[in-house]
Amino acid sequence: MPPYSVASGSVRSAAEVNEQIRALWLRAGGSLSAQERKEYELLVVEWAAAIRGTVIKAA
Q: Are 49 and 18 in contact (CB under 8 A)?
């Protein structure tokens, strides 16, 4: 998983992060290990930050 900091803001678009989330679930076969769950949680936080950034720009 590439290093990034959600606190400094998401560099990737929500679509990019969503694709990574989908790929994670596909690789995991629908059942996440403890490590995959941590990765998923970080990705969801990054995705939410990217969505917020899009909404703020649109306003």
A: no
